[in-house]
Design goal:
Blueprint lengths: L1 E8 L3 H12 L2 E2 L3 E3 L4 E7 L5 E6 L16 E8 L3 H13 L4 E7 L5 E6 L5 E5 L1
Parallel strand pairs: 1-5, 6-9
Antiparallel strand pairs: 1-6, 2-4, 3-4, 4-5, 7-8, 8-9
Length: about 130
């Protein structure tokens, strides 16, 4: 198991992209846009192999709230398990241990197979293929 990426919500997607690309040497993916929700994101890969996802959507609150985890700043940490079967199994294992499953295993609009749970402090943790 390895950390796949860390994700940040932002109201300034293009500024954040330039910041990490120009100042930290990140290699930026093509922009993902979901036309139904107006969600936009980039993945930025660094020389070490670490990845950062920066995300924006119009409904993003620029002040903290506990409603849905969509606030400026930290969004989630993602662990890559290597297969859909492992995502399914880990999701069930965590559910059986009493952790809240926020989203069931599924293929997202940008093609990732993942589920999402809350850690003991309520932080979002994505379990990815």
């Amino acid at each position: 198991m390895r950390i796949e990426h860390v994700a940040l919500w932002t109201g300034k997607l293009e500024n954040m992209k330039r910041f990490y690309e120009e100042l930290f040497g990140g290699k930026v993916s093509s922009k993902y846009v979901n036309p139904k929700t107006n969600f936009e994101s980039y993945f930025i890969a660094f020389e070490s192999g670490a990845k950062l996802e920066i995300m924006k959507k119009p409904s993003l609150l620029m002040e903290k709230s506990d409603s849905d985890g969509q606030n400026p700043g930290y969004a989630h940490i993602a662990f890559s398990l290597g297969s859909k079967e492992k995502v399914d199994a880990m999701t069930e294992q965590l559910r059986n241990k009493g952790f809240q499953v926020v989203s069931e295993p599924r293929t997202t609009g940008d093609g990732c197979y993942e589920s999402c749970i809350l850690d003991p402090d309520g932080n979002r943790v994505e379990i990815t293929e």
